[in-house]
Amino acid sequence: MAISHSSHRQHQLLLLFFLVHLIIPIQVSYSHNTNTNQTATPATTIPCRPDEASALLRLGHSFSSTNDSSCTLASWRAGTDCCGWEGVACTDGRVTTLDLGGCGLESAGFHPALFNLTSLRYLDLSENSFNESELPAVGFERLTELTHLNLSYSDFIGTIPDGIRRLNKLVSLDFSNWIYLVEGDNDYFLPLGEGRWPVVEPDIGSLVANLTNLKVLYLDTVDLSGNGAAWCSAFANSTPQLQVLSLRNTNLNAPICGSLSLIQSLTKVNLKYNKVHGQIPESFADLPSLSVLRLAYNLLEGPFPMRIFQNKNLTAVDISYNFKVSGFLPNFSSDSIMTELLCSNTNFSGPILRSISNLKSLKSLGIASTNYHQELPFSIGELRSLTTLQVSGAGIVGEMPSWVANLTDLENLQFSNCGISGQVPSFIGNLKKLSTLKFYACNFSGQVPPQMFNLTNLEIINFHSNSFIGTIELSSFFKLPNLYRLNLSNNKLSVVEGKYNSSWESIDNFDTLCLASCNISKLPDILRYMHSVEVLDLSNNRIHGTVPQWAWDNWIDLLILMNISHNQFSSSIGYGSVISANMFIIDISYNLFEGPIPIPGPQTQLFDCSNNRFSSIPFNFGSQLDSISLLMASENKLSGEIPPSLCEATGLKLLDLSNNGLHGSIPFCLMEDLSGLNVLNLRGNQLHGRLPNSLNQDCAFGALDFSDNWIEGQLPRSLVACQDLEVFDIGNNLIDDTFPCWMSKLPKLQVLVLKSNKFAGNVGPSIFGDKNGCEFVKLRIFDLSSNTFSGLLQNNWFRTMKSMMTKVVNETLVMENQYDLLGQTYQFTTAITYKGSDVTFSKILRTIVVIDVSDNALYGAIPQSIGDLILLSAVNMSHNSLTGLIPSQLGMLHQLESLDLSSNYLSGEIPQALASLDFLSMLNLSYNKLEGRIPESPHFLTFSNLSFLGNIGLCGLEVSKACNMSPDMALHQSNKLLPITG
C-alpha cells in the first residue's frame, strides 16, 4: 500500500495493495527427520540418573497439553527409567537427547530445571508455545555438550542469551520464528511491520564468534537490523564449516559481502524477505557445493553473475522480486539438475532460448523479459513436470500460448506485469490441478473465463488491473469449494452480489476479498456470513450510506487490513470507539464520515482517515496508538487543540493533520520527543505560538510543513540537527527573523519556502562575512516572496546553487518518503506562485526548479550568474526595486517556463536572447523602464500586451506601437520592395 495526496487516479493506484496474512512455518529437517531414532530406548542397561529424572519431571510439570498437542508426556512417570520416556534418549545413564519438537505443548516459561541436564547434546523444543516469555538470560552456558539446539516456533521473545555464545560444540542452531507477511497487488511480500521480530540479535558477530563448528543456522525472523553491514563478515570470519545459512525476514538492510564465499562449505543460502541491497557477489559462483540460492524479495540490483548457472550442483535459484537485478537466461545443458528457477519480476531480458527445455527436472519456472519483445518459446511447453509457471515483464507479448494447455501438472500459473493481451483461452478449464491462478497487471480483456469455475482445486484467484469486462456475480466464486482469496480489482467489471447459499464450503474459509473499482453501489450483504476475512478492499466504488453495525462487529476482531476509501460512506463511527482490535492497516479516507475520529486498535500501523468530515480528535487518542507508524487525518473539519497524547505514539514516522481548523500551539513534544518522526505536516490550520527550539541531535525529520498558520517568533536554530531535512515550508505565518544562512548546514535541503512572513535584512551571506557559510547546494525550490528582505542579490552566491545547474543521475522523479511498511510512499507537497498563479503541488517533481524573491525591497542589478542555473523552470523577481539591464544570460535558461520581472526599475532593451526560450509560456516584464524593440519571433508574438504594460519606451506588434526604423533597416525594407528585373 502506498500513500499519496496527488491525483485521484494516482492515489488509487498507490493505495491498492491487498494484503494476505501468511504464517509460514519452516520444517527443519535435521530435527524432525531424526526424531524416531533419537527417541528409541538406547541399548544400555544403565538407568537414568535420579537427579536428571527429577529435573525432567519438574520440566514436564511446567508443560500442559491442548487439544492440538501431539505429545502427552504420559510416559514421564516417577519411579520409571527416564531413558525410556517419550522424547528422551540417554548414553551411560545420562540424558543426551531431549526431543519435544512439534509436540504442541504449552508452558508459561522456560523452566530452569532443564539446565541441570548438562550432558545434553541434542535439544529440540520447537513448535511448542512458551507464551511470549523471555528467553532465559542465564543457564545455557551450562549445556556445554550441546551440538544441536532448536528453539524455533516456540513463541519466545527477547535477546538470544549470552550463554549460547559459549556452546562451541554446536553444529546446528535454530531460532526461527513465524513469518508474518503481507502480499501486495504485485505479490511483493514484506514483513507486516514493526514489532513482528520477537527475538533480537544486535551483535551477530559476537553470537557466532566461538561457534566454529556450526554447520546449520536458521535465524528466520530474528531481528538482525542492528548489525548493519557487519552481519556478512561475521559469518565469513567465524563459521568456516557452515553449510546452511537461513536468514529469512531478519530485517537486514545491508549488502552481501563478497567474503561470504570464503565459506567454501556453503550449500544453501536463504536471505528472502529482507532489504538486502547492492549487487549479488560474483564470488557466489566460486562456491563449489552451492545447491540452493534464495535471494527473493529484496532490493538487490545490478547484473546477476551468470557463472552461477554453471555450477553443476545447483538445484534451486530464486532471485524473483528484485526489480533492479538484470541478466538473461543462459543456454542450459541437458545434464542440469535444477528443480527451481525463479527470475520473475526482475529486470531480466534478452531471448528465452529453446534450450530451456533441457531442464527436465524443473518443477518451478519463473521468467522475465523487460525490454526484449518476444513471444514465449514453445519449448517451455515440453517441461511437462512443471508445477509452477510465472511469467512477467513488458517484453513478453502476444496472446497466452496454446502450449500452456500441455502443462497438466500445473498447480500455480501466473502472468503478471506483462504485455500478454487478448482473452484468457478456454483451455484454462482443463488444468485441473490448478490451485493458484494469477493474471494481473497485463492486458487481458474480454469476459472472466467461465471455464475457470470448473477448477475445483482453485484456492487463489488474482485478476486485478486488466481490462476484463462485463457483469459478474460474486456468489459464483463462492461455489468453488477451496477458494479463499479473490482479487478482481481495477478492471472494467461490474460486480453484483448474487444469492447467498448456506451450503457453500468456501464462505467460512475466505481470508481475502479485493473488489476495488468494481462499480459496486451497496456493501455486499454476503460479508455478513464471512467470518474469516482478514483482508478487505472495497475502495474506489460507489458505496454509500452508513456502515451497518453487523459489519463493524464482524470486522473488529477479524480484519488485519480494511480499505474502504474513495466511497460515500457517511455518519459517525461512535465517540471514542476503537475501530479495530487487530487491524494493521485501516484506510477510510475520501468518504463522508463525521464526528470524532475513531481510535484505531493497538496493532494498527497505518491509519488514513483523511478527506472526510471528522470534527475532533479524542483527547486520549495518542495513548491508544501502541504500534502506529503512519497517521493521516488531513482535509477534515478538525477543531480544538492537537492532543498532547499524540506524543505517546512513540513509533510515529508520519503525522499529517494538514488543512483542518486546529488551533492552539504545537505541542513541543511532537518535535522534541518523537525521535522517529520524519514527516510532520500541519499546513493550513490556525496554530499559533512559537516553534520549539530544543530539537534532539538524532532528529529524523525529512519534511516539515507549518505553512498557512499564525506561528510567530524566530526559526529554531536547533533545526540544524535535522540532517535529513529535505523540505521546510513555513510560508504564510508571522515569523520575524533574518535570512537563515545557518540552514545551509542542512546537506539535503531542497525546498525552502519562507514566503509571506516578516523576514527582513539582506538575502544570502553578509557582504562582509564568510562567503562560504551560506551555500544551499541542494536547493530546487527557493521562495522568499512577500517579506521585507532588502539589499543586493549577490552574483557569486547564485553560483553556489549547484542543484539548479546539474541533474542528479538516478534520482527519483517525485520527492517522496518511502516506508518499510508495505513499501508505502508519502509524496511531499508545497504551495508556491507558479506561472502567475498560486499553485499547490500535491507532488513535487524534481524538474520543478524555482526562485521566487518577489514582493520584497531588493535593489541593484539582477545577477548575471542566474544564467548558470540552467535547470530553472520559474523565476519571479517582481515587485522589488531592481535596476539595470535584463541580463542576456537569461537566454541560457532553456527549461524556463515562467519569468516575472514586473514592477521594478529595469531599463534598456529586452534581450533578443529571450526569444529563444521555447518553453516560456508566462512572461511579465510590465511596469519597468524598458525601451526599444520587443524581440521579434513567432514565440514572442504569443505574449499579449499585458506582458509589457507600463513600459512606454517599448515598441512592437505586442504593444500596438510601431518602431521607428533605423537608416539601415529602412534601406533593407526598401530593397525588399524593389521590382525584380532582367
TrEMBL record:
Please list which residues make up the signal peptide.
Answer: 1-31
Domain of life according to the entry = Eukaryota
Q: Which residues form the Leucine-rich repeat-containing N-terminal plant-type domain?
A: 50-91
- A family per Pfam: LRR_1
Topology versus the membrane: Single-pass type I membrane protein
Which ranges carry the Disease resistance R13L4/SHOC-2-like LRR domain? Answer: 351-531
Would the keyword Glycosyltransferase turn up in this protein's UniProt record?
A: no
Query: Which keywords fit this entry according to its UniProt record?
Result: Cell membrane, Glycoprotein, Leucine-rich repeat, Membrane, Repeat, Signal, Transmembrane, Transmembrane helix
Q: Which GO terms describe its cellular component?
A: plasma membrane
Q: Which PROSITE patterns match?
A: LRR
Q: Where in the cell is it found?
A: Cell membrane
Family, similarity comment:
Belongs to the RLP family.
Q: Which PANTHER family match?
A: LEUCINE-RICH REPEAT RECEPTOR PROTEIN KINASE EMS1-LIKE-RELATED, LEUCINE-RICH REPEAT-CONTAINING N-TERMINAL PLANT-TYPE DOMAIN-CONTAINING PROTEIN
Q: What is this protein called?
A: Leucine-rich repeat-containing N-terminal plant-type domain-containing protein
